[in-house]
Amino acid sequence: MFLSQLFDELAADLAGNGVPPARADARDLIAAILDKPKFWPTANQSLELDRATEEAIRKAGARMVQGMPMQYAVGRAAFRHLELNVDQRVLIPRPETEMLVELVLGLAGQGGTAVDVGTGSGAIALALAAEGRFDKVIATDISEDALEVARSNLGAIPPEKRTLLDFRLGNLLEPVAGELARAIVSNPPYISPAERGDLPAGVRDWEPPLALFSAEDGMAAIRGIVREAAALLEPGGLLAVEIDARRAGHARECAETDSRFRDVEIRTDLTGRERFLVARRKER
Description:
This protein is of the alpha/beta class. Helix content is 41%, strand content 20%.
């Protein structure tokens, strides 16, 4: 089959299921399966596909027609300079979380240990290991399934950087109890279970609830991280947590009322939404 035929069929299937914009999604899906730039399928419509490639594209397209997000359908997601394996055991990495990594790289300095709490696919930890100047990067998660995905992504960073990573199973910062960290960073669950119905179907129906929802009106994980981080950060150490704009005030209050922190602030994302809690550990 020629690529042009499959392109048209896939776009028609997606359009019939109400996926907008169908042709753009068909193009992006084909490019992802073939590991090509997004413009490539449009510029190479006369290519004749082998049976295995055609079948792989059709299967991924069928998953998208069912409503599955494209990243899960193709099994990969881009994050900063990395190409990561993803499936329904982990969240799909978001552009906002790329900004969280940028914040940490700019504020944490060099050396010491960075801890990524609730690592999921390993996106934050791997990016910090690849781009930062830390001596060690510890990635924790309460889900063994998530850690399995994160470990599978070690190949996304250079071989000499892989030895920096240490994956540990456990809730929040329990796996690093008693150690000191230069930076603690997290994209924790911060959605209230009561807000489930407000989420897009692609998030609500496909992404893991454990990584989305938190008790105490979405604040339980954030409060736990702030409390536990204060005991583990070295003097001047950085805490950086991705948050929801609806909870920015509560997150800031949580850190400001802990006498062990200084320089507490809320940073915004590229859309101007309050998105990140940043604080420093006071001198001990």
